[in-house]
Amino acid sequence: MSENIYLTTGEFAKLCNVSKHTLFHYDDIGVFSPEIIKDNGYRYYSIWQYDTFIIITELRNLGMSLKEIKEYIDNRSPKKLINLFEDRISVLENKINHIKSFKNSIEIRNRELINIPKNNKNDVFREVIKESCLLFSKTVESLEDIDFIFYSSEIIKECIELGIYQNNPYGATRSLSSIRQKDYNSYMDIFVIVLNSEEKPYLKKRPAGEYIIKYHFGSYDNIKNSYDKLLEYIDKNNIETEDIIYEENVIDYFATKNEDDFVFKIMVKTKKSFQE
User: Fold this and answer.
1) Chunked in runs of 10, what are the mean pLDDT values of the chain (276 residues)?
2) Regarding beta strands 43-46 and 36-37, do their DSSP bridges make them parallel or antiparallel, or are they unpaired?
């Protein structure tokens, strides 16, 4: 090994591409200290300490705390490194899955925004929808504003516990029979759409097939007008449908401060098969 070379704090910080403050902090908490501290307070790092500092940097990049890093450095061994890597692989896989879920959610919401009808906003139309998985809240009977916030909060907590990205597209279900009776305040469930999910016991499937779709534009207070148009279309065309209505939030407070700019997507599945 060649002769040792010592660097001042500033020189070593420049070598490691960090600030002098970082080196002072690492020394204060006992993670990484200069090899020499002279009586006059001058501090010198050995050039061979660079490898140790790189270890700290890599472990920080793996998401380890400085306390965990100190514990590893003080007691490192090949076996501990294997255990560390296996643990970090699991952590990174969870992060990757979360990022993928986040990306999928953004793509879905962006696609919904792009597909909002720009013209003929009063149109009712048919569209084939792919199967999707939904996470449902507890059954609800009616939703005042405070109730909706309560149930939304509960389902967000459940999403966090299950590792589901909580900003996924969401909405509520209604009964078509209730709408026919002019009951616009009764709901069945609040749901979150779970993207690219494996089958889980806590998820329910919204079946693929043909759906009757009506977008509602503006304040939710006027949504009954859109339901009236939906029923008019169904009855005029003698369409048999299921009873469950899916009502999705497309544009809400996440995108605008003005309720007049809100957009909701109302969907009810026809009874004809997917192949017909």
Assistant:
1) 79 93 93 91 91 91 88 88 88 82 77 78 88 76 55 69 67 91 85 71 85 93 92 94 93 84 94 61
2) antiparallel
How far apart are alpha carbons 218 and 203 in whole angstroms?
31
Q: Domains in the chain, ordered, with CATH?
A: 6-76 (1.10.1660.10), 102-270 (3.20.80.10)
- How is residue 41 written in tokens? 């307070």
Distance CA 212, CA 167 (A): 25
Tell me the two tokens of residue 259. Answer: 């309720």
Token pair listed for 27? 């020394």
- For residue 125, the cross-strand partners are 213
Give the whole-angstrom CA distance, residue 206 versus residue 10: 62
- CB-based burial of residue 53 (10 Å sphere; 0-12 exposed, 13-18 middle, 19+ buried)? buried
- C-alpha 50: how far from chain center: 39
Rounded distance between C-alpha atoms, residue 159 and residue 192, angstroms = 9
Asked if residues 213 and 126 have their Cβ atoms less than 8 Å apart, the reply is yes
Cα 31 from Cα 61, distance rounded (Å): 16
Q: In whole angstroms, what separates CA 119 from the centre of its chain? A: 31
Q: What is the pLDDT of residue 18?
A: 93
H/E segment holding residue 216:
strand 209-217
Distance CA 159, CA 167 (A): 9
> Facing residues of 124 across strands?
214
- Using only C-alpha atoms, the chain has a radius of gyration, in whole angstroms, of 29
The residues, ordered by sequence, that sit 6+ positions from 219 with a Cβ below 8 Å of its Cβ are 259, 260, 262
